[in-house]
Design brief:
The chain is α+β, with helices and mostly antiparallel strands. Among the domains are: 74 residues, lambda repressor-like DNA-binding domains (434 Repressor (Amino-terminal Domain)); 79 residues. It is 30% helix and 20% strand. The chain has a four-stranded antiparallel β-sheet, with no helix packed on it. It has a four-stranded antiparallel β-sheet with strand order 3-2-5-8, with no helix packed on it. A hairpin with a 2-residue loop joins strand 2 and strand 3. Helix 1 packs across helix 3 and helix 4 runs antiparallel to helix 5. The longest helix has 23 residues. The protein is elongated, with a radius of gyration of 37 Å.
C-alpha cells in the first residue's frame, strides 16, 4: 500500500494541488487523503470507506482507479460487524407507568360514573310522547333510509419502474484566452463525439454503463462526473484518457 500511496502523492504534486485543495474538490477529508498517501489504512474508517476513498481519489488524479484499488484491496482488513444491543442504548425505563389516584378523587370519579349510568337508564326507559301527552307510535319507524355499503374493488397501486442509473460526464473548457481541447468520447463502447471544444464551451455525455474520454489538452478543461467536480485532470498540452464505469 505504501507504493500506491507514493504514486498518489506524486500524481497530486504533479498537478500542483495541496491536500486541502483536493479535499475541497473531492469532499474527502484531508486526513484520510494523507492516510492513503502514507499507507496508514488503520486510520481510515473501514475497508468499504477506504476503497471508496481510494477509488475516488485515484479517479480524480486521472489514474486507473480500478487498477489502483485491486493492488491494495487484499491488504486492508475486512470491516468488523458492529452489533448494537440494548445495553448500548440509553437506559430508558421501559416498564409501564402506574397512575395512582387519591381516595377522595377516586370516590368522586366513581360517583360521577354511577350517576351517568342511572341517567342513561332512565332516558332509555322513558317513552317518547307527543305534545298532548300521547305516546307517538311512529317514533320507532322514523328512521333514516338504510344505507348499504358495497365492497368496492380497489386497484392496487401502480408500480413505477425504477429510474435507470446513468453515467454522466460534463466537460467544460476553461474561459481563458486560447483555451481549446480536442475530445473523443465513447459511450457504452460507441463513439459519440470527436472534435474540438472551444473556449468556455460545455458538453454533456450520458451512458448506461461506461463512458471513456480522451482529452487532447487536459489542462484546458474541467471534468464533472455524476455531479462530482473532478477539476482539471492534467497539465497544459497533456493527453489524458479517462474512463468512468458504473460502480
Amino acid at each position: 500500500m505504501e507504493e500506491v500511496g507514493r504514486l498518489l502523492r506524486q500524481a497530486r504534486e504533479d498537478l500542483g494541488l495541496t491536500l486541502a485543495e483536493v479535499e475541497a474538490r473531492t469532499k474527502i477529508r484531508s486526513r484520510y487523503l494523507e492516510a492513503l498517501e502514507e499507507g496508514q489504512h488503520d486510520v481510515l474508517p473501514g475497508k468499504v470507506y477506504a476503497l471508496g476513498f481510494l477509488r475516488n481519489y485515484a479517479r480524480f488524479l486521472g489514474m486507473d482507479a480500478e487498477l489502483v484499488v485491486s493492488q491494495i484491496k487484499d491488504s486492508i482488513a475486512d470491516d468488523d460487524v458492529i452489533k448494537v444491543s440494548e445495553d448500548h442504548l440509553p437506559a430508558y425505563d421501559r416498564r409501564p407507568k402506574r397512575v395512582f389516584l387519591g381516595k377522595g378523587l377516586f370516590k368522586a370519579v366513581i360517583g360521577v360514573l354511577v350517576a351517568l349510568l342511572i341517567l342513561s337508564g332512565i332516558y332509555n326507559l322513558w317513552p317518547s310522547r307527543k305534545g298532548n301527552g300521547e305516546i307517538d307510535p311512529t317514533i320507532a319507524e322514523e328512521q333514516g333510509p338504510e344505507v348499504k355499503i358495497e365492497d368496492q374493488e380497489i386497484d392496487p397501486p401502480a408500480i413505477l419502474p425504477e429510474a435507470e442509473e446513468k453515467q454522466e460526464v460534463v466537460i467544460n473548457v476553461e474561459d481563458e484566452q486560447g483555451a481549446r481541447c480536442w475530445v473523443e468520447v465513447l459511450a457504452d463502447g460507441e463513439k459519440v463525439f470527436t472534435g474540438t471544444l472551444e473556449r468556455a464551451e460545455k458538453k454533456v455525455f450520458i451512458a448506461q454503463e461506461k463512458i471513456k474520454i480522451t482529452l487532447g489538452d487536459a489542462g484546458a478543461v474541467r471534468v464533472t462526473y455524476n455531479g462530482q467536480e473532478l477539476g482539471t485532470p492534467g497539465k497544459k498540452g497533456e493527453v489524458v484518457p479517462m474512463e468512468f464505469p458504473r460502480e
